[in-house]
Amino acid sequence: MSDFNKEKLNVVFATDIDKSGPIIPRRYTLTHSDETGELFLSIGKYYDYSKVNESRDEVLGCWNCDENNLYYLRFEVLLDACGGEEKLAIRNKIFRDELPMAIKAIIYGDREFLLGCGELYESKVIIKFKSSNKNYSAVEQWGYVKDYKVKEADECRYYRQKNKGVMNNTIEKKATSQENISMEKFQPMDMEGNLVSYPTPFSPGMQYPIPVNPQNRCSIIERALMDMLFPYIENQVFLSFGKNTPFCLRQGRILNARVISSYGPCRQQYEIVVGIKAGRVPPPYDNLIITFLINNNRVTVKSAKNPRFE
């Protein structure tokens, strides 16, 4: 297996995606140069087939959800190519030898996104070996995303630098504000207009900000948004399935979220798509898809439908 050299990794983000999301759709296209050993990673909502060459040695990856609404990272490689079964066996061996390095490159290339959604490190890694030959066609689990993550030292350094900037900024602001406060401005008096002594303020010492913990941050944001939308979701469930139809908000999920328009530099309109499992015996799929429009402090329902009847 080749060793991963981060200096030879070139990463490009498509214009429709960034380091903060979304999780789905989020696709990876990894190719390489045999001459230089460089790796080329494209990250976007769609696969970058413009980077795929005739040798078909690319590694494609994407995030998906299983039947339990758990994220997993799925990769696929094409084993079939020109040549017979001997060529197929060679390609199969090469891919299996080089895939650990390729996956590590992809995980490293999108590390800032993953560090912001730390729970994704617990996701399974699924590999699909595509071939018309049943002896080589396979779907296998190759551990978890955390098995291919960056070294712990690199991750700690990332957060130390991030928190150091926040801490220094906080300390500087605190010192400046204390220097600018003049006690002459505060002369408390009693009811007769006589000056009274001003109590010495209690100083607990230097207060450091709580370090940012990326663990579960994405899921917490989703849960908070779902809680905010609960009354609207409940109303749509009752309209679609009848009053008193049970549903569990914790089984709901955010299927998609995007900005659809902007009103100046500080206001935007969002489209949020929510999936709900409703009924006394909820199905394994989302039987109610609700699209919300959120604008400033206003929430409206754009559509609500059962995908099985569309």
Explain what the structure shows.
The chain is of the alpha+beta class. It folds into three domains: 6-148, 3-Layer(aba) Sandwich (Severin); 154-179; 220-309. It is built from five helices and eleven strands. It has helices at residues 85-109, 111-116, 152-180, 217-228, 230-241; strands spanning 9-13, 27-32, 39-44, 59-65, 71-78, 124-130, 138-144, 253-263, 267-276, 288-295, 298-305. β8 and β9 (267-276) form a beta hairpin. The longest helix is centred in the middle third of the chain and has 29 residues, at 152-180. The radius of gyration is 27 Å and the shape is globular. It starts with 8 loop residues before the first strand and ends in a 5-residue tail after the last strand.
Write the layout of secondary structure elements.
Layout: E1 9-13, E2 27-32, E3 39-44, E4 59-65, E5 71-78, H1 85-109, H2 111-116, E6 124-130, E7 138-144, H3 152-180, H4 217-228, H5 230-241, E8 253-263, E9 267-276, E10 288-295, E11 298-305
Parallel strand pairs: 1-3, 5-6
Antiparallel strand pairs: 2-3, 2-4, 4-5, 6-7, 8-9, 9-10, 10-11
Distance between the termini: 48 Å
Label the structural class.
alpha+beta
| Adjacency order of strands in the biggest sheet | 1-3-2-4-5-6-7
What is the correct CATH architecture of the largest domain?
3-Layer(aba) Sandwich
Mean pLDDT: 80
Q: Write down the domain tally.
A: 3
Considering DSSP H and I runs of 4 or more, what fraction of the residues is helical? 25-40%
Tell me, briefly, the overall form: globular
The stretches of 5 or more residues where confidence is low (pLDDT under 50) are 173-187, 201-212
Biggest pleated-sheet summary: 7 strands, mixed
